[in-house]
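**User:**
My hope is that you can spare some time for a protein that puzzles me. This is the protein in question:
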Amino acid sequence: MKEKFIRIISPITLAVIAVLDAGVLFYAIYAIKRLINYPSTPVILFAALDAVALIIAILVTKEVLSNGVKFYDDEFEFTMLDENNIFEYSDIEKIAISKDTSASLKKDFFDRSSIMVFTLKEGKELTIDLGYTSKKSLEAVANEIKERSGAELSALKKTEKEDEKKDD
């Protein structure tokens, strides 16, 4: 099969990065105008600091946009995890996904994160927290893994404690 990459980006992270990049770009334009019209030591220092901020903004944006899942012929890799991020299709027996989309003012971001649970053929279960992503991204990743591995895909069942919380 062909290699594929599915990007996993939190909508909030994307908005924050866009605002920060716009701010750095605005100050870069301002620094260049000041440097042309009123060259002085403080303006040169401001322009130099803004150049450093621009480089950092580019690197951070690149890192945020590189988070996702890379699919290869016989394995897939979660690029946002530091270690134990490569899995072989032949090891996966079942996939369960969970994304809470119900309306609530009591839930925080951790309650809204997307979760994938892999049941391996050895009987072990691995939980991958994809963070605050869209349901569309979660389903795209799960469906691609299902298609390539032949694993069974299901929704993650709620535990009794979660049901008790809901009743409170």
In short: DSSP finds four helices and eight strands in the chain. The mean pLDDT is 82. Residues 117 and 127 are 4 Å apart (CA to CA). The first strand starts at residue 4 and ends at 7.
